[in-house]
Every structure is written in structure tokens, then in C-alpha cells.
């Protein structure tokens, strides 16, 4: 029986408790840590640059971007598409040239085989038992001559470099003749630009301008330097990550979701312009996480480290 002590080393089994304790002390295993406030995007920050938006726009799915940043992203994607399209056209032309060369090569082989067979047919008697001579093939009754077939005098070689095969066999030190060289297939690139966050198709005309209502506070501080920067355009409640918000499409005003449920959805009228609204005109803003567990789902960071084996 082993010794029951704090630093017992006489046990025959490496227990789970000992393994977990050693992993924690030595730095092996996997770390799970909940993201803090500094790692979470604010509701008024761009989803790409993670900085406060100077000219905010929102997609129909509720993702906020800075107009300059999202336009640069779209231009970069269009440039990437044009490069891929040129590469596709180049590969397509190469495939067509290879197919034409293959057809021409097959035709040349067929012609060479035909001429070789025609040259092997002779009309004079030869000794068929000698190398390089011909043997009788058939008798033509009208011309009264025997057609002979010439026998090949060249000896067959077992070398894989004979008869011009040295130019056909692959070369492992030449990239163009290696077995492992994968032939690139011409695939036409997709011209659709997708949203970097939602992965859905994105167009410039779908970007909706957003108008935040700044908080009126005394002082010369910049709007971006304030902790409470914006408020609801209707109720003047302070907006933050813990307050669900929505954007009204016709004017771009940002209001709280509570204001939408209690005031706007009753008559479906814009509270500032009194114009009729529809469900498509109310865009729910996608916000960052908070300290509450039900606000967001993926707020846990995972870091893999070397595994400690028994």
C-alpha cells in the first residue's frame, strides 16, 4: 500500500489529480479565459478597424462599419477578383493550347504509324528467316505477286532510356517533370463580394448611413474621448453595449430597442418624422459583448499549449 502523503511518489498510477496539478504548474494543456471588456468591440465601433466610426454605415444585417474602411475593403476584393480573373483566363488559354497540341500529337502519331505500316509492305520476295528481311504475308491473284512484311531487325531493349524515352520519363529534380506536380485547373473566380463578418453578399448600395445623437455635456472633450458618447434619438437614454439598439432606415437615427417595442411598433410611425415604417426599416444593431452570460455566446478565448502525457 502506498504512502498517503502530500508528495507521494510511490504510487503506481498517475492519477488525474496529479496530472492536472502538474499541467497547471508546468504550463502544459489548454487555457480557457473569458474575454474582458478591453477585448470586446463597442457598439459604435467599426467591425473591421475596431475603432470609433467617423462616418458610420450599417448593413441590412446590422453590422456597423466605417464608410472609408468598408469601401477600401470592397476595392481590395475587386482588385483581388481582377487578378484571379486574369489568372483564370491564362490557365484557360493554356488548357486550350494543351488540348490542341494533344490532338495534333495524336494525329502525328497516327500518320507516323500509317506510314510505317505502308513502308513495311513490299512486293518482292525476300528471305523471311534473316533479320531485317520480310516474310510472305499474302498472294495477290491478279498481279501474281506475293506481298511480304518486313521484320524488324532492331533488338528490343529493356532499358527505360531507349527509343527516346529519356525525354518522356519524369525527372524528380525538374519541377516541370515531377510526378508530384499538380495540374492547376481553371476555375472561374466568384465575383460576389461578401461581408467580412456575416459572410453574406455585400453591395455598396446596401450600406445605410447611420446618425448617432451625441450626448450634450459641458466641456471641450472630443466625442470619442467621452465614456458616454451617444444617446437615443427619442428617449435620450445613454447607449452602450448593454443596451440593445436599432437603426431606423429612412433617417439613420439610432434608438433603443425598448423605444422600438414600446413606442414605434404600436403605430409603425417614425417618432421624429411621423412617416410610415415597415419591418425592413427597423435594423437591429449587432453589438459587442458584456459581462452578462446571455448577451453573447462566443466570449471565451482558447489557447492550446503542449500536451503533458503520462
TrEMBL record:
It is found in: Cytoplasm; Nucleus. GO terms for cellular component: cytoplasm; nucleus. It comes from the Eukaryota. Keywords: Cytoplasm, Nucleus. The keyword Acetylation does not apply. Pfam families: zf-NOSIP. InterPro entries: NOSIP (IPR016818), Znf-NOSIP (IPR031790), Znf_RING/FYVE/PHD (IPR013083). Residues 4-78 form the Nitric oxide synthase-interacting protein zinc-finger domain. The keyword Ion transport does not apply. GO terms for molecular function: ubiquitin protein ligase activity. SUPFAM superfamilies: RING/U-box (SSF57850). Belongs to the NOSIP family. This is Nitric oxide synthase-interacting protein homolog.
Amino acid at each position: 500500500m502506498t504512502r498517503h502523503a502530500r508528495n507521494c511518489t510511490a504510487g503506481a498510477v498517475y492519477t488525474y489529480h496529479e496530472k492536472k496539478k502538474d499541467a497547471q504548474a508546468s504550463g502544459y494543456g489548454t487555457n480557457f479565459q473569458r474575454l474582458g471588456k478591453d477585448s470586446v468591440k463597442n457598439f459604435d465601433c467599426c467591425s473591421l478597424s475596431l475603432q470609433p466610426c467617423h462616418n458610420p454605415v450599417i448593413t441590412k444585417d446590422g453590422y456597423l462599419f466605417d464608410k472609408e474602411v468598408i469601401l477600401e475593403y470592397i476595392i481590395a476584393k475587386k482588385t483581388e477578383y481582377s487578378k484571379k480573373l486574369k489568372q483564370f483566363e491564362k490557365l484557360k488559354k493554356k488548357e486550350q493550347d494543351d488540348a490542341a497540341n494533344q490532338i495534333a500529337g495524336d494525329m502525328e502519331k497516327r500518320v507516323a504509324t500509317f506510314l510505317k505500316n505502308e513502308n513495311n509492305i513490299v512486293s518482292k520476295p525476300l528471305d523471311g528467316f534473316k533479320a531485317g528481311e520480310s516474310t510472305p504475308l499474302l498472294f495477290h491473284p491478279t498481279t501474281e505477286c506475293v506481298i511480304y512484311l518486313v521484320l524488324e531487325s532492331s533488338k528490343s531493349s529493356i532499358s527505360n532510356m531507349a527509343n527516346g524515352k529519356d525525354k518522356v520519363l519524369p525527372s524528380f529534380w525538374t519541377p516541370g517533370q515531377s510526378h508530384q506536380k499538380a495540374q492547376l485547373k481553371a476555375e472561374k473566380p466568384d465575383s460576389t463580394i461578401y461581408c467580412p463578418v456575416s459572410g453574406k453578399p455585400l453591395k455598396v448600395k446596401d450600406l445605410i448611413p447611420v446618425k448617432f445623437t451625441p450626448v450634450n455635456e459641458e466641456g471641450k472633450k472630443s466625442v470619442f474621448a467621452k465614456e458616454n458618447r451617444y444617446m437615443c434619438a427619442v428617449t435620450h437614454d445613454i447607449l452602450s453595449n448593454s443596451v440593445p439598439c436599432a437603426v431606423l432606415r429612412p433617417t439613420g437615427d439610432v434608438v433603443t430597442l425598448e423605444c422600438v417595442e414600446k413606442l414605434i411598433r404600436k403605430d409603425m410611425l417614425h417618432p421624429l418624422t411621423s412617416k410610415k415604417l415597415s419591418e425592413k426599416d427597423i435594423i437591429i444593431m449587432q453589438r459587442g459583448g458584456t459581462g452578462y452570460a446571455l448577451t453573447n455566446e462566443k466570449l471565451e478565448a482558447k489557447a492550446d499549449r503542449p500536451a503533458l502525457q503520462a
